[in-house]
Amino acid sequence: MTAFEQVAHGCEIARGDSLQVLRELPSESCGMLLADPPYCSGGATRSDRKASTSTKYQQSGSAPLSEFAGDARDERSFRLWSTLWMCEALRILEPGSSAVVFSDWRQLANTQDAVQAAGFVFRGIVVWVKPAARPQPNSFRNDAEFAVWATKGPIDRRPLPGARYLPGNYTYPPPKAKTRLHIAEKPVALLRDLMAIAPEGCTVLDPFMGSGSCGVACAETGRRFVGVEMTEHYYAVARDRLAAAWR
After folding, report:
1. If we measure between CA atoms, which residue out of 29, 4, 27 comes closest to residue 15?
2. Other CB atoms closer than 10 Å to residue 62's CB: what's the count?
3. 63: left (phi over 0), alpha (psi -120 to 50) or beta
4. Looking at the DSSP assignment, which residues form a beta bridge with residue 226?
5. Where are the alpha helices (DSSP H) in 118-205?
6. What's the Rg (C-alpha) of the chain?
7. Helix, strand or coil for residue 178?
8. Collapsed DSSP state (helix, strand, coil) of residue 231
9. What SS3 state is found at 241?
10. How far apart are CA 179 and CA 175, in angstroms?
11. Is 40 left (phi over 0), alpha (psi -120 to 50) or beta?
């Protein structure tokens, strides 16, 4: 059994392979999945995808950050692996819970396939617009990442008092290169906004917590957090960051 570390009351994290750890979590114990898995992307060819994460995702001149694991799968293995861990996440979520899974444009179709193959009800795509993306000559600007939204079964869409009306796109700059803690770090404000789809006070599951941004957003919104991270360096970073946030 994987040992979970209680960073604070309502905040538990574990270091290990996400698929293995998810198999050990109890069924119907979380109220939202908010996941930012390795995209296994960063290029158009097999050799591109197998490059180091710093080569694929860091611009030249940025402060060097530690590599992270699990980012070299090919298209077919990424889709199969995604289906496997999403099947476990489906079991862990309470009925009616939302799953929000980040992707880039290259893996968007595979992520949608995996969500549906795992048994979720596919609901749509949320767009994260990055306003300062670098322009490319003779090209459309690649200024967005995506989050696939799905639910565990039906949801109540009646326009009753207390219903949540959320936008379909959010505009936030990525964390600054000089201050970010992870190569693929997401803005805490963006994660806070996405959590608005989940009940207040619920437990949010993040199987790929990286530097712990999702857990920080949970601390700021009064939600509980369960996080998993494989890379030793980032697990230590997340533990320290979460301990400070939850204090």
Report:
1. 4
2. 14
3. beta
4. 12, 205
5. 188-195
6. 17
7. coil
8. coil
9. helix
10. 7
11. left
pLDDT at 66: 62
Question: What are the pLDDT tens digits along the chain (247 aa)?
Answer: 788 999 999 999 999 999 999 999 999 999 999 999 999 885 555 555 555 555 544 555 555 566 656 677 888 999 999 999 999 999 999 999 999 999 999 999 999 999 999 999 999 999 999 998 888 899 999 999 999 999 999 999 999 998 999 999 999 999 887 788 878 899 999 999 999 999 999 999 999 999 999 999 999 999 999 999 999 999 999 999 999 999 8
C-alpha to C-alpha distances, 199 to 8, 34, 45, nearest whole angstrom: 21, 13, 41
Residue among 239, 183, 233, 235 nearest 216 (CA): 239
Given a contact cutoff of 8 angstroms between Cβ atoms, the answer to whether 172 and 43 are in contact is no
Q: In 105-223, where do the E strands start and end?
A: 121-129, 144-151, 169-171, 203-206
Going by the DSSP 8-state scheme, the letter that residue 20 receives in this structure is H
| All residues at 6 or more sequence positions from 4 whose CB lies less than 8 Å from its CB, including other chains | 12, 13, 14, 226
With residues binned 3-state (H G I as helix, E B as strand, rest as coil), the percentages for the chain, rounded to 5, are: 30, 25, 45
The answer to whether 4 and 13 have CB atoms below 8 angstroms apart is: yes
3-state secondary structure of 43: coil
Q: Is 147 exposed, middle or buried (0-12, 13-18, 19+ CB in 10 A)?
A: buried
Q: State residue 56's pLDDT score.
A: 44
The closest of 190, 237, 189 to 209, measured between CA atoms, is 237
Collapsing DSSP to helix, strand or coil, 149 comes out as: strand
